[in-house]
UniProtKB/TrEMBL annotation:
Keywords: Ribonucleoprotein, Ribosomal protein. This is Large ribosomal subunit protein uL29. It holds the Pfam family Ribosomal_L29. The lineage of its organism: Bacteria, Pseudomonadati, Nitrospirota, Nitrospiria, Nitrospirales. The gene is rpmC. Belongs to the universal ribosomal protein uL29 family. NCBIfam families: L29. One of its GO terms (cellular component) is cytosolic large ribosomal subunit. The keyword Ribosomal protein applies. It comes from Nitrospira japonica. One of its GO terms (biological process) is translation. GO terms for molecular function: structural constituent of ribosome. CDD domains: Ribosomal_L29_HIP.
């Protein structure tokens, strides 16, 4: 998913996406360890997507807080 698609998701959907990506990262690392991973760049892409999702979650969290409180 690219950033535009991620921005359209709600906070619960982003949380679920983060869980899915974390599980995918685990699987990719396991494949790397066993020598079955064909494209090691998938790990880097997955880590970046996780970071983007977490950033969007934090932005929505901060936006929901009232300014000045």
């Amino acid at each position: 998913m690219d950033l535009k698609e991620l921005k359209q998701l709600s906070a619960p959907e982003l949380s679920e996406k983060a869980k899915e990506l974390t599980q995918e990262l685990f699987n990719l690392r396991f494949q790397l360890g066993t020598g079955r991973l064909e494209n090691p760049m998938q790990i880097r892409k997955t880590k970046r997507t996780i970071a983007q999702v977490k950033t969007l979650l934090r932005e929505t969290e901060r936006a929901s807080q009232k300014p000045g409180s």
